[in-house]
């Protein structure tokens, strides 16, 4: 699942609505073109100004959520039934994992409306989705040995490549770039939603999971869009730090980044599975 709910509009809303003043609002205007609210001169600096979002704080939040996700994923992996009997692989998806998916999805949506709760809702997502990701990964590994470690390595490689491309400004997050990525992500979410509804009635959108050339091409495009979403996450973190967003926003940014990483991993897993079936 992608995270278009965490965008510049929500950042602008939070900057305008939270009690903490924007850093630098008492002395100098924000960077030209900033998407956040313009500062006001309200007198001496208050104690709130010491509690700003930082890159290190965001990294700590991401690491904390990631550890929770990995621990939960290990339980999901163990709970999933995957064995090989008489040369035939069998797998069963644990029903409780669906509860984790629903809880995680709800936590993301709630955090988009109540950012101050992200510190508590982030772990809910990490634990709930982590369990489901572990169970899903076990299913792929049962039928395609070694695919999970390949997907993990590919996800890490894409993450660091995108980080380098963003930091060197080879990729620039402009308004047009942001709109295109978010609209494409929303389109994919709608497509997956329609596919899920069709599956309830025994139908399907074949190319989503098909190892055909068109199906592989679709997965490549989706992985590319997920990778581009990482650039948007990096941009929001950088802008949040520069604008002096409240420290609680570190958890909002961490949750948004984790959602993108999980989405990217699952799409790479799907793509690798299609390639191995060719």
Walk me through what this model shows:
The protein is mainly alpha-helical and 278 residues long. 67% of the residues lie in helices and 4% in strands. It is built from 8 helices and 2 strands, in the order H-H-E-E-H-H-H-H-H-H. The protein has helices at 8-17, 55-79, 96-113, 118-143, 147-167, 175-200, 213-242, 249-277; strands at 81-85, 88-92. A two-stranded antiparallel sheet has the order 1-2. Helix 2 (55-79) packs across helix 4 (118-143), helix 3 (96-113) runs antiparallel to helix 4 (118-143) and helix 4 runs parallel beside helix 8. The radius of gyration is 20 Å and the shape is globular.
Strand arrangement within the widest β-sheet reads 1-2
Please outline the major beta sheet: 2 strands, antiparallel
Instruction: Count up the helices.
Output: 8
Order of helices and strands: HHEEHHHHHH
Distance between the termini: 26 Å
Global Rg: 20 Å
Which shape, going by the Cα principal axes? globular
What class do helices, strands and sheet pairing give?
A: mainly alpha
């Amino acid at each position: 699942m992608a995270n278009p709910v965490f965008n510049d509009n929500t950042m602008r809303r939070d900057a305008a609505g939270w009690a903490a003043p924007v850093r630098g609002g008492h002395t100098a205007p924000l960077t030209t073109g900033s998407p956040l609210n313009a500062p006001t001169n309200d007198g001496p600096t208050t104690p709130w100004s010491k509690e700003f979002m930082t890159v290190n704080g965001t990294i700590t939040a991401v690491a904390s959520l990631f550890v929770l996700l990995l621990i939960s994923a290990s339980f999901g992996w163990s709970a999933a039934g995957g064995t090989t009997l008489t040369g035939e692989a069998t797998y069963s998806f644990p029903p409780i994992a669906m509860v984790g998916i629903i809880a995680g999805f709800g936590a993301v949506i709630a955090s988009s409306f109540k950012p101050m709760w992200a510190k508590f809702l982030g772990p809910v997502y990490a634990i709930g989705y982590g369990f489901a990701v572990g169970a899903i990964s076990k299913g792929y590994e049962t039928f395609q040995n070694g695919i999970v470690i390949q997907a993990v390595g590919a996800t890490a490689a894409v993450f660091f490549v995108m980080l380098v491309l963003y930091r060197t400004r080879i990729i620039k997050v402009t308004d047009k770039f942001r709109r295109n990525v978010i609209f494409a992500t929303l389109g994919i979410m709608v497509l997956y939603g329609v596919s899920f509804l069709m599956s309830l009635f025994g139908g399907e959108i074949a190319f989503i999971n098909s190892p055909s050339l068109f199906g592989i091409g679709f997965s490549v495009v989706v992985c590319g869009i997920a990778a581009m979403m990482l650039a948007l996450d990096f941009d929001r973190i950088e802008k949040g730090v520069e604008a002096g967003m409240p420290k609680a926003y570190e958890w909002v940014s961490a949750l948004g980044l984790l959602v993108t990483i999980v989405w990217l991993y699952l799409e790479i897993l799907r793509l690798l599975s299609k390639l191995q079936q060719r």
